[in-house]
Amino acid sequence: MIPLEEARERVLSAIPAPDVVGRASSDALGLVLASDVRSPSTVPPFDNSAMDGYAVRHEDVAQVPCVLPVSEDVAAGHVARGIVEPGTAIKIMTGAPIPTGADTVVKVEDTVPGEGSVEILVQPEPGVAIRRAGGDVAKGDRLFSAGEVVTARHIGVFAAVGVAEVEVCRPVRVGVLSTGDEVMPPDVVELDPGQIRDSNRPLLIGLLAESGLQAVDYGIVGDDAGALRGTFAEAARDCDAVITSGGVSMGEYDLVKQVLTDLGGIELWKVAMQPAKPFAFGAIGRTPLFGLPGNPVSVFVAFEQFARPALLAMMGHGALRRPRIDATMGEDVTTDPEKTVFLRVVVESSRSGRIAHLAGGQASNVLSATARADAFAVVPRGVAALSAGDPVTLEMFRWAND
Ligand code: AMP
Ligand code: MG
Question: How far apart are the C-alpha atoms of 18 and 172, rounded to whole Å?
């Protein structure tokens, strides 16, 4: 058996560097910037009013209350025809350009409107309620740096400054297939004896989508050497990576194992972890292939520990791991001291801290408990048992509402 950390390092060191592409900035959500983004423009583009109110010269409102004639109204999207002459005001809406001559805006709440005039009740601070040109972004500013993940907020800024295209790390396309003669499409209503529905492929396609990766569905391939070889080759040719499930267990006669080893460049590993000990990894040509075990919980654990970090790295992400937090175990558990054990737990936030409770059955086929879980409680090698109240590290794949 090889230690989990060594297996993960071998996977991460074998994956190709990201490709850089240009992409419409509005279409870059979740992608990683491949170069710094500088602003081609100034935001706001002009001095404008932060309030609905009256644009005035500050010296004209030194004594309040006072009454000023209002020469015109200026709405957002329009420019005042005239200027604020000494002793006058222009009515102004939020976002409208500050008229020439004015240096202050009195907010509407501090005024009483009259016939062609306004009474100012409160003396404003000089320059108040004016949003200066460039107060948000100056032309040439570095807005964002290479390596940042584009969020909706970034996309809003790109729009504000007029950045139409950005350089990003290309999205990674991942071919997904299930193997096994017993595995049937999920929409089969009546299963024949010995058959099961394919949960791994929908699970993996969803996991990829949750991490911003693109899945390509290659369906179910039965235990047939020719069909397996053909589908592996097609997926490797058309995708950036391939994930299979099933057929990599040790000691059994299995066509998947045979075909993967025949293809060359793929090794079968026994990783010192539970679940998901058997794991095939390598490349078909230059395309990485992750051969996950067949049991659905093992699929999830192996995806989280190997495929997800590797695929995120292929997309240029720097943060590859789930957030880790400290908690205490909610009940007694025994684990295999030879392996890193990933218990699926529900996290309870209590006054004394976070408590991890087993989410249900911990066998590698019990996907329902995994679906209810928030985190892995990671029990390191060398530990054979934890008691209720013992400290444990959690790897969070869902944040509880607390
Ligand atoms: P294998 O590694 O192919 O021997 O599979 C291990 C276990 O996982 C067996 O009980 C399989 O029936 C089950 N299994 C394999 N593939 C799938 C799948 N796509 N969905 C659900 N269970 C599966
Ligand atoms: Mg099988």
Answer: 9
Judge whether 322 and 398 are in contact, CB under 8 Å: no
Residue 66's DSSP bridge partners are 120
Atom of ligand 1 at shortest range from CA of 249:
2
Contact 52, 93 (CB under 8 A): yes
Q: Name the CATH superfamily, with its identifier, for domain 28-42+135-169.
A: Molybdopterin biosynthesis moea protein, domain 2 (3.90.105.10)
CATH number for 324-396: choose from 3.40.50.2000, 3.40.50.300, 2.40.340.10, 1.20.1050.10.
2.40.340.10
Asked if pLDDT for residue 251 goes beyond 80, the answer is no
Distance of alpha carbon 98 from alpha carbon 107, whole angstroms: 13
Residue pLDDT, tens place only, 316-363? 999 999 999 999 999 999 999 999 999 999 999 999 899 999 999 999
Residue nearest (by alpha carbon) to ligand 1 atom 15: 294
Q: Is 282 in the pocket of ligand 1 (CB under 6 A)?
A: no
Compute the distance from residue 167 Cα to the ligand 2 centre, in Å: 42
Q: Maximum Cα–Cα distance for the chain, whole Å? A: 95
* Shortest-distance ligand to the CA of residue 245: 1
Indicate the pTM of the whole model.
0.92
Residue corresponding to tokens 């423009």: 41
- DSSP H/E element including 18: none
Residue nearest to atom 5 of ligand 1 (CA): 294
Give the model confidence (pLDDT) of 146-159 as tens digits: 999 999 999 999 99
Residue-wise pLDDT for 124-135, tens only, equals 999 999 999 999
